[in-house]
Amino acid sequence: MRRPVNEIKLRFPSRSANEGFARAAVACFAAQLDPTLDELGDIKTAVSEAVTNCIVHAYPDCLGDIRMRVRIFPDGCLEIVVSDRGCGITDVEQARQPMFTTGGTERAGMGFCIMESFMDTLRVRSRPGVGTTVTMSRRLRARLSANAAPGGPSD
Amino acid sequence: MKVSYRQEGRTLTVALQGELDHHAAQGVLRGIEAAVDTRLPLRCVLDMGGVDFMDSSGLAIVLGTYRRLRELGGSLALARVPNQARRVLSAAHLDRFVSIEGGGT
Ligand SMILES: Nc1ncnc2c1ncn2[C@@H]1O[C@H](COP(=O)(O)OP(=O)(O)O)[C@@H](O)[C@H]1O
Ligand SMILES: [Mg+2]
């Protein structure tokens, strides 16, 4: 198993005000990889999509727990896991299709597509009545090779 | 999210300011639709110059406004689109049927 060089865990209630908090927190943490503005924008957008889905879809009429884990690997890979214990998704393949939404006109059905195109990998695991876990990663390679990779605990 | 309207002839400019996410954008589409329904513009311009961040909640607003305009025989354009929002629009291929005017940042 690859070992992360750094890791944060967050846990917060599914209040919509926390959408901004979640993406800002991940952006701050990712800053140590010296990402470009575009990379940072892509990561914030992907986080916003995953967290918004928990708030809007997983817990439609109650507050629930959202957990995030963000890890940095030695190769400059940023991995983000967002999970909820909400209603779950019956058909993940269908949910990932562009324009598919159960959320009416205020949703575009493009959340998973955005996560997919802005990140290198996206995995969605879900069980109806149990919850959903979205795992996505993006390697921030260009800058990291120019600088030293993050190393020991004190740097 | 701050929304302000300016009308010149049959052109309605809607200026959006702030973070265009689900939290901030709740009810924004309904407000724009109501303004379009009462002012009946032939052309609507969404001025995105003040949008600091946009996710797919913003796409729903662009799409909803586009549909409403099309139903009424009008057209929609986006102006001053910042780079981050532009990346979201093109990931969703919205830039193929909504015209994007001028440069952003
Ligand atoms: N965390 C989640 N819990 C339950 N359902 C979800 C979750 N995330 C996504 N979904 C389902 O997948 C659909 C597609 O999600 P997405 O692509 O983000 O589009 P949107 O959020 O605009 O509906 C949602 O409409 C919803 O039915
Ligand atoms: Mg979504």
Summarize the structure.
Chain A is built from 5 helices and 5 strands. By secondary structure, chain A is an alpha+beta fold. Chain A has a single domain, classed as Histidine kinase-like ATPase, C-terminal domain (Heat Shock Protein 90, 2-Layer Sandwich).
Distance between the termini of chain A: 23 Å
Principal-axis shape of chain B: globular
Helix share bin of chain B: 25-40%
Cofactors and ligands present? adenosine-5'-diphosphate, magnesium ion
CATH class of chain A: Alpha Beta
> How many domain regions of chain A?
1
Give the spatial strand order of the biggest sheet of chain B: 1-2-3-4-5
The structural domain count of chain B equals 1
Uncertain runs of chain A = none
Description of the molecule:
The complex is a heterodimer of chains A (155) and B (105). By secondary structure, chain A is of the alpha+beta class. In chain A, helix 1 runs antiparallel to helix 2 (37-58) and helix 2 (37-58) packs antiparallel against helix 4 (111-118). Chain A has helices at residues 18-30, 37-58, 92-95, 111-118, 141-146, and strands at residues 6-13, 65-72, 77-84, 121-127, 131-139. In chain A, a hairpin with a 4-residue loop joins strand 2 and strand 3. Chain A has a single domain (6-141), classed as Heat Shock Protein 90 (2-Layer Sandwich). Chain B is an alpha/beta fold and 105 residues long. Chain B has one domain (2-101): 2-Layer Sandwich (Transcription Regulator spoIIAA), CATH 3.30.750.24. In chain B, helix 2 packs parallel to helix 3 (56-71). The two termini of chain B are 19 Å apart. The mean pLDDT of chain B is 94. Classes of the chains: A alpha+beta (155), B alpha/beta (105). At the A-B interface, helix 1, helix 2 and helix 4 of A face helix 1, helix 3 and helix 4 of B. The structure holds adenosine-5'-diphosphate and magnesium ion. Adenosine-5'-diphosphate binds next to helix 2 and helix 4 of chain A.
